[in-house]
């Protein structure tokens, strides 16, 4: 495990200490869990953005295919 040193505003550290105490956790464990939760949130957001991008491409392609079907259905001798 790697040791990290960081600077935090006093109010952020105080809040982290208070929340850690409420949860009966050491401050370091509270901060570790906060980082893990943030990492998970970023990963979820990234996946969500990728899915939206792919979904838009699929929707555009689907509209083209629907237009082709409509053209065939409307054509008298197709």
Main sheet makeup:
none
The class by helix and strand makeup works out as: mainly alpha
Number of folding domains?
1
Order of helices and strands: HH
Number of helices: 2
Low-confidence stretches: none
Radius of gyration: 26 Å
Tell me the total number of β-strands.
0
Cα end-to-end separation: 69 Å
Task: Report helical residue fraction.
Answer: over 70%
In round numbers, the mean pLDDT is: 91
Shape: rod-shaped
Report the portion of residues in β strands: under 5%
Would you summarize the structure shown here?
The chain is an all-alpha fold. The protein contains two helices and no strands. It has helices spanning 10-22, 27-74.
Which SSEs are present, and which pair or pack?
Blueprint (H helix, E strand, L loop, with lengths): L9 H13 L4 H48 L4
Helix pairs in contact: 1-2
Describe the structure.
The protein is built from 2 helices and no strands. By secondary structure, the protein is mostly helical. It has one domain. The radius of gyration is 26 Å and the shape is rod-shaped. The mean pLDDT is 91.
Keywords:
single chain, 78 residues, mainly alpha, 2 helices, 0% strand, rod-shaped
């Amino acid at each position: 495990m790697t040791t990290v040193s960081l600077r935090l505003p006093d109010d952020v550290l105080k809040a982290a200490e208070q929340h850690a105490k409420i949860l009966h956790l050491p401050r370091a464990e509270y901060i570790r869990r906060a980082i893990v939760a943030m990492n998970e949130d970023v990963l979820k957001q990234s996946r969500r953005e990728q899915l939206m991008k792919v979904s838009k491409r699929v929707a555009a392609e689907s509209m083209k295919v629907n237009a082709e079907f409509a053209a065939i259905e409307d054509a008298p001798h197709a």
